[in-house]
Design brief:
Layout (H helix, E strand, L loop, with lengths): L7 H9 L20 E6 L5 E10 L2 E9 L9 E9 L2 E8 L4 E8 L5 E5 L7 E5 L11 E7 L6 E6 L4 E2 L3 E8 L5 E7 L5 E6 L5 E6 L4 H6 L2 E2 L2 E3 L6 E8 L4
Antiparallel strand pairs: 1-2, 1-8, 2-3, 3-4, 4-5, 5-6, 6-7, 7-8, 9-10, 9-18, 10-12, 11-12, 12-13, 13-14, 14-15, 15-17, 16-18
Length: about 250
């Protein structure tokens, strides 16, 4: 199982920024197939916990997680996920945006659900169901924004403006980095104004950041500096990339 470190962004800088600089507006999103599966469970107090997972190798899952509550802002957290499935046994860790590490263990069920117990919630079994993917839209468009590390040229993230999945608290979108196979999952919270951006690269590095926006359009058009996230993300600048239309 891949261990969490503060080096995620450092390992990702080279492939992410290899095609820095501005890009002309374009409609194509290469390799649009969604590599992520979203699972959702209800916590004992009624809050929601989602896992955004991709299988990076045989039995190894990497991804991110989201928590949201209708009435408890302290539970509105995000972070990184790393786990392993051996047979039907699942072990995993999550690292919150506040630096808290939580262990999970449980099993993968024949009905496709994952049953996990969190180390901070002993005695409670969380049942994660897959969040059904939305039907493909007849017509689609894409939007773009730029992400910039200090002392580096910006990279372009192109996002399909049609949500891939929606559930009670989150709306999910899929994107790519610099027209490569590096995939991006973006979730917009329906209750709290916060977007979680998770980037996964083919070399198994990943990073996650949060932006205080209420919609995908606001993420695209609003310049901001990330203040929360993992992988030394706090100095990254987000820049307006413009809106494009046409088939992604």
């Amino acid at each position: 199982m891949r261990k969490f470190t503060k080096m995620f962004a450092i390992g990702l800088v080279a492939p992410l920024l290899g095609c820095g600089g501005s890009r002309e507006s374009g409609g194509d999103l290469p390799g649009l197939a969604d590599p992520f599966t979203v699972y959702s469970a209800q916590l004992p107090d009624g809050a929601q916990m989602d896992l955004v997972l991709a299988e990076t190798s045989g039995g190894e899952w990497s991804g991110s997680f989201n928590e949201a509550s209708d009435d408890n802002a302290a539970e509105d957290v995000s972070g990184l996920f790393s786990g392993t499935r051996a047979g039907n046994s699942v072990t995993a860790d999550i690292l919150t945006d506040g630096g808290v590490k939580i262990s999970l263990s449980g099993s993968y069920q024949s009905d496709g659900t994952i049953r996990l117990t969190r180390s901070d919630l002993p005695g409670s079994t969380l049942v994660f169901h897959t969040v059904k993917a939305n039907s493909a839209a007849a017509t689609r468009s894409s939007v773009q924004f730029s992400i910039k590390f200090p002392n580096s040229s910006p990279s372009t993230i192109a996002v399909d403006s049609t949500p891939t999945r929606t559930d009670t608290h989150f709306t999910y979108y899929l994107g790519v980095v610099d027209q490569t196979t590096g995939k991006v999952s973006i979730s917009i919270r329906n209750v709290q104004p916060l977007a979680m951006i998770y980037m996964a690269q083919p070399n198994y590095t990943s990073l996650q950041s949060e932006q205080p926006v209420t919609s995908l359009n606001e993420l695209v058009t609003k310049s901001a500096t990330s203040t929360k996230g993992l992988g030394q993300f706090y100095k990254i600048q987000f820049q307006t990339g413009g809106v494009t239309t046409g088939p992604p």
